[in-house]
Amino acid sequence: MVDPIGLAIALLGAVVAAVPAGIGSAIGIGMTAQVASGVLAEDPKKFGNLFILVVLPGTQGFYGFLGAFLAIMKLGLLGGSVEPITLWQGVQMFAACLPVGLAGLASGIWQGRVCASGAELVAKRTAEGTKAVIFAAMVETYAVLGLLVTIFAQMGIKLGG
């Protein structure tokens, strides 16, 4: 039997996976794009070096979407038949979605700051752009870990009769 409150809490978990991670990505991309646009105003040939730095903070939004999608899939909402879920299972799903949402929010913003600094580095020393990407990838690690915790936690939730 589907507890409507449990299902609502589980769906709220999917929202908590996607929305904060998306916000973190939007802020991170925005910060980096502002700096990159200033660099491009001076030297449009640096677009290729700056592009990866601008898009890199966007991955957190994808991780959050994936965490939400997996929750919705597990609940059976895309297959037409909702899995039986209790209130407690809804709370478990909500909790399982938190790591990717929170890690995505924080790492998206911080990665944006690192990438913005990297864009400043590219402005002065174009050949050093790879180093800026490596620094940004170090922040990315924690977004990936948040996604993995969400996936493993969702796998541990037993739904159905």
UniProtKB/TrEMBL annotation:
Membrane topology: Multi-pass membrane protein
One of the Pfam families matching this protein, by short name: ATP-synt_C
Main location group: membrane
Location of the V-ATPase proteolipid subunit C-like domain: 12-70, 94-152
Localization in the cell: Membrane
Xref: InterPro entries: ATPase_proteolipid_c-like_dom, F/V-ATP_Csub_sf
Keyword Transmembrane: yes
GO function term, MF aspect, one: proton transmembrane transporter activity
Keywords: Ion transport, Membrane, Transmembrane, Transmembrane helix, Transport
Gene3D superfamilies linked to this entry: lithium bound rotor ring of v- atpase (1.20.120.610)
SUPFAM superfamilies: F1F0 ATP synthase subunit C (SSF81333)
GO cellular component, one term: proton-transporting two-sector ATPase complex, proton-transporting domain
Family statement drawn from the similarity comment of this UniProt entry: Belongs to the V-ATPase proteolipid subunit family.
Protein name in the entry: Permease
